[in-house]
Specification:
globular; Rossmann fold; 29% helix; alpha/beta; 8 helices
Length: 286
């Protein structure tokens, strides 16, 4: 229940669901991309890992990124001068392991589905891909991994433009992969980010000025990307990850952010939100 500008009560009776992650012996997190958002998010994920282990949960984290730290990254990504010329993923893992006594792994290669699905037992392990990438090729690989997971691999996609961004959470590429309990208002999954927003898998439209080959760091140097947008996106993505790991359930499937002016909106899990991405018709009211 909210109050609008004319001080009248606005009541929304839309029925919502909770998406349950399900029980498993362990949880594996994969942070794909260690640039502006990924390097900011890594610290929060390490704290989630530490907290989860205090609670007796078996949770792992792997950071995947082939890039090395460059001078232009300093101050705009979570790296220091001493890490220049070292691998981003390796630097983050080394630093966070030393700080928290963890065993975070680093893979200094481009992401490939085999890193996640090889030898995967869905009955024993829950997996969450956290994509902080800035190109559609990498998102295509993430989408392919989710498809191979047949509803058992979750994907949290985190992407931003100059002063805004979108976060999507899901695990299903087909509607039959989501079981719904209408009585308890529960569901077993959410539409994959690529189902919610198919544009994630296609090239970005041409920019007004040539920016081909420019990274987030380059755009920030040119003042074409806010210095704060990555931090904002990382904080929201960390909360989604925290809910997934510690609570085992989700109440929203997407969040949109803008910094000019500062605003954030999230999409609740409703029947329409579960059906529309798959092109299913709206249920008729009885």
């Amino acid at each position: 229940m909210t109050m609008n500008q004319s001080d009248t009560i606005a009541v929304d009776f839309t029925l919502t669901y909770r998406a349950l992650v399900g029980d498993a012996e362990r949880m594996d997190l994969y942070l794909v991309g260690a640039g502006g958002t990924g390097s900011a998010l890594a610290d929060s994920l390490a704290r989630i890992l530490y907290h989860a282990r205090q609670k007796g949960k078996a949770v792992s984290l792997t950071i995947i990124d082939p890039d090395i730290v460059q001078e232009r990254n300093i101050g705009r990504q979570r790296f220091c001068q001493a890490e220049v010329s070292y691998a981003k993923s390796g630097s983050l893992a080394l630093r966070l392991n030393a700080a928290f006594g963890l065993d975070i792994r680093a893979i200094i290669q481009p992401f490939a589905p085999s890193m996640v699905v090889s030898g995967y037992s869905a009955s024993k392990t829950k997996k969450l891909l956290i994509g902080c990438v800035d190109n559609y090729h990498a998102r295509q690989e993430l989408a392919r991994t989710v498809e191979e997971g047949r509803g058992n691999i979750w994907w949290l996609d985190v992407g931003n433009a100059h002063h805004s961004g979108n976060i999507y959470m899901g695990n299903a590429v087909r509607p039959e992969q989501i079981a719904v309990d209408e009585a308890l208002r529960l569901c077993s999954g959410l539409p994959s980010p690529a189902v919610q927003d198919p544009a994630l898998l296609v090239p970005d439209p041409p920019a007004p000025e040539p920016t081909d080959g420019l990274s987030c760091a380059d755009l920030t140097l040119r003042e074409e990307q806010s210095l704060m947008i990555n931090t904002m996106m990382a904080a929201i993505a960390a909360n989604y990850s925290y809910q997934w790991v510690m609570g085992g359930e989700l109440t929203s499937l997407a969040t949109a952010v803008t910094l000019e002016p500062p605003a954030m909106t999230s999409r609740w899990i409703t029947g329409e939100a579960l059906r529309r991405p798959f092109g299913l018709p709206e249920k008729k009211k009885s």
